[in-house]
Structure formats: structure tokens, C-alpha cells
Amino acid sequence: MEVAEVVPEFADVFSFDAFNEMQRTALPAVLEHEDNVVISAPTGSGKTALAELAITKTIADGGTALFIAPMRALTNEKESEWERIEQLGYSVYVVTGERDLNPRRAERADVLVMTPEKVDSATRKHETPRYAFVTDVDVVVIDEVHLLDSRSRGSVLEVVVARLRRLVDPRFVALSATMQNIEEVAAWLDAPEEMTFDFGPRYRPVDLHAGVETYTHGDNAFADKYRRLYTALDLAEPHLDEDGQALVFVSSRQDTVKAAEKARDEIAQRDIPVGDRGDYDFHSRTQVLDNDTLRQSVLDGVAFHHAGLSKNDKDHVEEWFREGRIDLLFSTSTLAWGVNLPARCVVIRDTKLHDPLEGEVDMSPLDILQMLGRAGRPGYDDVGYGWVIADRVEADKYRQLLRDGKEIESRLADNLPEHVNAEIALGTITGLEDVLDWLETTFYFQRANYAPGEDAYDDVRERVRRVLDDLLERGFVETEGELGLSATLMGQLASRYYLRLQTAERFRGLVDTEPAAEAILGAVAQGEEFDSVSARGDERDAIEAVLGRDTGSLDQGARKILAILEASMGGELPPELRSDAWVIKQNALRLLAAVRAFFDRFDRPAGANLCRRIEARVETGVPPEAVGLTAISGIGAGRGQRLSQAGICRPGAVVDAGVSGLVDAGLGEEVASNVLGQAKQLPRIRIDWGAFPESVQAGENDMQEVRLSTGGSGARLGIRVTVNGVEMTRSVRYVADAETVPVGVFGADDEELTYAIEVTFPDLPLRPHRETRTVSVR
Predict the structure, then answer these.
(1) C-alpha dihedral sign at 521, 526, 531, 532
(2) Distance of alpha carbon 736 from alpha carbon 460, whole angstroms
(3) Which of 107, 242, 405, 450 is the most buried (most CB within 10 A)?
(4) What secondary structure letter does DSSP report for 2?
(5) pLDDT score recorded for residue 1
């Protein structure tokens, strides 16, 4: 069956001329019907072409396709691969971060490419013009639907699908290489039996021989890694000797580099015939690589691949591996999820990985099966060899996995309260009856229907009722009328910032206290989102050196979070804390933004401003006196440090310095000009006290008007008036240019009255502006 005969308009989209047996079998279901389709097919069998058929059918009919990729690295790959679609006059748009979103491009796109997390974020904001595009999709293609079983991400995919079904009800085409209980997934998506395809091992392009190799776990984790590495090389060596290739999966980016480096030495000692150091032409080609270590390694026939490499380097590693220039490749699991890069021998060296938020965790069983699926090169190998290296204690567990496979489980139960709260906050659940209707759209509910025993179905419904009662009791949800439900402000904020409910309650309690940096950082460090973070032995001295004080009831994990945040604010992060710092900081910044929103929405602008300044310092490491500089676009840690060292610590001082002063402080002339222009757009508070009296007669009252101006740059301001430290008035308002603030001067019993006006900036990291006047009582 020729591609040009089936889809003549889109023949150039496909990289082959004819469909294979598996594709021919499923093709009518994809192209000739509108029902939902579920397909399980071995890695390398060509199921991606079925996704592309579903997409081309939709856009040919004038519709919009949404492709949900399992990870961000693959969304970028699809953007590159599907340039072929764009060459036919259609638009492909990858939706990444909030800041990079182009709503007009997203709205006009024929094909949207997103991760589950991005779809979740977009559907939570679907009523805003910026994200309305997400409700205008006609088909949703879920790549690697077995992501449902992921402990940390599975529930996101599940609720996204349930939400889309309630908001849009598009057609679904779900694909996976690993779907033991395909009938349950099909029932969940309402895919008819004739639209459900389970292509077994017969459809693998190369037979797979998979096994488990054991090692004895010792007391030293680093020594264990080397034991497993030598075992991996033992397994790969016979294939390398026969001009075959080996792909070894390890647990982290750093490990890919270290393992490749050690393997080069070991290969040289074993005299394994790999590498092209004598090939001058290839030596010249390697000069295009950005990574110096990688450039040296590939000449020895050994390379590494991970998401942190530049696209240029990843593309060249993949190209040279396909050409046979690279014989041994070390990679993280990213390579197993989308890049078609098979090898005769695949070895999984690490079955455990370090997660900065969860500590040491087992690799997902479905990830392991996905990796082993890369064994065997079609057209080159008759058999592919896959090995899992496991501790003797766990060997039987992996042997059973290879023998029996793994059913896809729902992970929704792990954080069901948070998801129910989110759906109520979003308005997809508006009443008591809606709760159970929503439940029936989840895979969690479907699994209960298939569970043995008559009580599973009722147990799930009862669990959801208990969750709803708990949300009502804790103040996340409130009733409207007899059957209506709506989210409280706390419930809305918990949903908007993806908070665990206990974290949201902690932040709500913080709002009722006087804002203090130590309390805010402590609340973030104790967030439930970090409940599995632990401090390793080599980190504890560094934590103590940063904190240097008693932190009360904080456990070691929370102290580690606090140390990373405080060290980041100071601009000096100890090397021992750097490996987990990036992930922890990104999550902490989200929580800090949530704390800021709590202060802001509960009318505490000073607390919101303090949070904003803490965020800025965590991100940039500027000193506290210079934090206001970060409100200027283009000012980060380096420039902020240079300006503060020159005595320029406020945006107003930037304006006063002018271009010449900024150049003298170390900025280039063009940068200085841009920074000056940005600084001029920020508010510069001036308070004109007018005829404010110096004294007042006891018992008399005098209402004064104080004029507050922003220097022509509008901003949302928190304005607080106090007398002798007692609050008289507090308000939050947008001031475009100038505003009059009424201040009552009254003759009290005190001999002296100190009036203070404090202006804070809930949305900007500018330091508060405070002025006082003293009035004597006669």
C-alpha cells in the first residue's frame, strides 16, 4: 500500500514510500472513522506514522490537532520533524513556557505540540483570551499513553484527558509501545473494540532477547556504579567485537559523561576495536561539536547523550550513531521516548535514579520496557539483546517484569484531593452531581470497574465523597444553594499554583502574621511539595555552613531547601548543594509566587512586595540593597553586582547616573542605554505633605491631603498610613500618575504623633518607600 495512493496530498510528510503490515491494519480505523483509537505496537514498528495520519486527516478537514508528547525534549524534536508539514502550507506550533507563548500563533496553528503539563496549564486558563486556543482542538494524539503509570506525572495526563473530554470532547488517538491492559485504556477512552489494536511481539522489526544480569550491592554507591558499568561493558563487548553497537542507559546527565569517560579507558585496556581517531575527515567533522568532552570522546567511538546537550550536539551524536561512527553510547531515558535510535545491544545500567524532590526512586517499570524496546537495528540485526543490571535481591522482580509485562495503573488516587479542588476551581465541576460525572471520565474510575471484587466501584465513589467533604471542611470549597459548589479564594490559589493542600493552608496562615523573610522562607522550605527531599551525608556540612543557626523544627530536608534558597540569595551556592539546586529553586520560586499571591489577594501588599523581593534575590543573587535593580529588564546577578558596587542600588539612581555613569560602572554603552530606558519606566515615588501641620491643639481634628505621585509611571501600589505605629488606613490601588491620600491629624493624649506613609509595590521587587512627619500636641 503506497503512501502516495492513501494520502497523496501529504505523501511528503512521511519518510517512507509504503506502509508496513502493522500500519496497513490500523490505517482504516484512523482515516475512515471518527471513533477514538487505541494502538499498542512494539518500539520501532512504525506507530508514529499512525499519529501523523490522524493529524493529516484532521488538518485536511480544516481542523486542529493537538499532539501530547511525553516530555519537552520530544516536543522540540517534533517541531523539527514536522517541518515537512509546514512545507505544505500548514502551521506547527510547539507550546513551551508561559513567557514564550505567542497566543496568535497558537490560535492559528493547525498542529499544536505540548507536554501534559503544558496542556494542564493551558486548560486551567482556557477562559482567558491567551489560552482560548486549547478549546479549539478536534483531535488529540497521545504519544506513549503509558505515561499514565508515571508516579510523578501520570495523574497530570489523566486529568488533562478528563478535562478535555468535558471541555471539548475531541477525538482521541492513543499510542503506546507498552500497554498490557489495553482493553482498560480503550474502555476509558470509549474506543470501540474494532478501533483497539494490540500488535504483539510478532510486529517487532527485530526479535528481542531480554534478560537480567545481577551484581552484588555494596556499601559504597560510587563503587556500585563502577561494578554495574563493568558488567555493562562485559555484556556489550561481544557485540562491539562484531561491529555491533551498544546503547547503555544510566540515571543522570552527569553519569552519562562519567560513564563514557571511564568506558573509554576500559575499552582501551581491553583492546576493543572501536573509534575513528585515524580518520582525518571524521576528526574534522567533530569540530562542529559544542561540548569539548564530547568532541574528544566520539573520536574513540564512545559518546553520551542527554537533554542538557545543545541541539547541535544531540543531532550529530544521533547522526553518527546511525552511521556507525559511534559504537558505544551512554544516555539518559530521554533517548528511549522518541528518538528512533536502535542498537544491537541495550543495557540498563541503573534501575534507580536520584530525584531532587523525592530522593532515590526506582525507575518506572514501563520506562525500563521502553528502553529495552530499542534493542535491535532493523535491516542490520536478526536479534536485539536487552539487559537489565540489577541487585541480586531485586533480580526476580525484573525477571517477572520482562516475562509478564506491566499493567498501566492510575496514579490519580495519590493526589485526588488536589485534582478535585482544581476542577471545582476551574468550573468543570459546579455541583455535587458533577463530581461523580467527572469521576467517570477518569482512568482511576475505569480501573475500579476492572478491579476484582464487587466493592471497588463503590469504594472509589465513596472515596471521592470523603474528599469533597474534606475540601468543604478545610475551607477550599463552599456550597452554593442546595447542590452547587465553588472554590474559595484559598481553593482558587491552591489550584492556580498547583499547591498541595497542606501547603496552601500553611500559606494562608502566613498571611495573618507580620511579613518576615525568615517566616516566608521557612514556610516554603516546609512545603509538602518537598516532603521527600533528603540531605545526603556530603551535603550536611555545607547546609550547616550556610545556615549557621538553629532552625527550630525544620528537618534535614527542609534545612537543605532553606540553605539552597539563602545561599542563592547571597549569590554563593556551595558546590555540595549544586546538583539538586536547579530543580529545588524552580519549585521554590513557584511556591514563593504562590505566597506572594496569598498576601496580595488577602489584601497584604507589604507581604506581597517582600515575597517579590525574595524571589528576585533567589533568582539573581543580588544583595538586598540592590534588589530593586532587578525590576529593570536585563539586570541579573552580574550587572546588579557591578552597579551596586558602584553605589547604584536603585532604579532612581540608574536614572540619575545616566548612560555615562552606567558605562563607568561597567556596562556597555548599548546595554546602558537600554537599562536607562527601562529604569525611566518604573515608578519613582514622591510624597508632597503640603501644609501638613507641625502641631495640633489637644482635642482638635484636622483632615489633611497628602499628594503621592509616581513620576508619570503608573503602578499598583499598597498605601498604608500609620500614627505612632498604629494603622489608620490601608489600601491597594493603581496610581497612574498622582493620587491624594487623606490623613486625619487629631489632638490625642500623646505629646507627639509620628505619622508615616509607606508605599509598597505588590508586583515589583522595589524596596518600600516610607516617609514620616512628626506633629506635637499642644
Answers:
(1) positive
(2) 54
(3) 107
(4) B
(5) 85
Q: Mean pLDDT of successive 10-residue segments in the chain (778 residues)?
A: 92 92 95 96 89 96 95 80 93 80 92 94 91 96 93 92 94 92 96 96 90 89 90 96 94 93 93 82 90 93 91 91 93 77 93 85 88 88 94 94 91 94 93 89 89 68 91 95 90 96 97 94 96 88 92 92 95 90 94 97 96 95 92 88 90 94 93 93 94 89 92 91 93 94 87 94 96 92
Q: How far apart (Å, rounded) are the C-alpha atoms in residues 757 and 723?
A: 9
Residue type, 317: V
- Residue type at position 176: S
3-state secondary structure of 171: strand
Q: Measure the CA–CA gap between 746 and 242, rounded to whole angstroms.
A: 96
CA distances 208 to 329, 335, 451, 474, 764, Å, are 19, 18, 31, 53, 58
Calpha distance 19→27 (Å, rounded)? 9
Type and span of the H or E element at 40: strand 37-40
Can you give 617-660 as a three-state secondary structure string?
HHHHCCCHHHHHHHHCCCCCHHHHHHHHHCCCCCHHHHHHHHHH
Residues in CB range of 587: below 8 A, 6 or more apart: 357, 529, 530
Asked if 57 and 30 count as a contact pair (C-beta separation under 8 A), the reply is yes
DSSP state of 192: -
Which DSSP state fits 382? S
Ramachandran bin of 462, using left for φ above 0, alpha for ψ from -120 to 50, beta for the remaining angles = alpha
- Asked if 376 contacts 204 with a C-beta cutoff of 8 angstroms, the reply is yes
- Between CA 199 and CA 196 the distance in angstroms is 10
pTM to 2 decimals? 0.87
User: What is the distance between the alpha carbons of residues 308 and 314, in angstroms, rounded to a whole number?
Assistant: 9
If one counts every other C-beta atom within 10 angstroms of the C-beta of residue 92, the result is 23
DSSP-assigned letters across all residues of 678-694 = HHHTS---EEE-TT--S
User: According to the 3-state scheme, what is the secondary structure of 508-557?
Assistant: HHHHCCCCCHHHHHHHHHCCHHHCCCCCCHHHHHHHHHHHCCCCCCCCHH
Q: Is 199 helix (H, G, I), strand (E, B) or coil?
A: coil
- SS3 at position 191: coil
Contact 197, 476 (CB under 8 A): no
98 phi-psi bin (left φ>0, alpha ψ -120 to 50, beta other): alpha
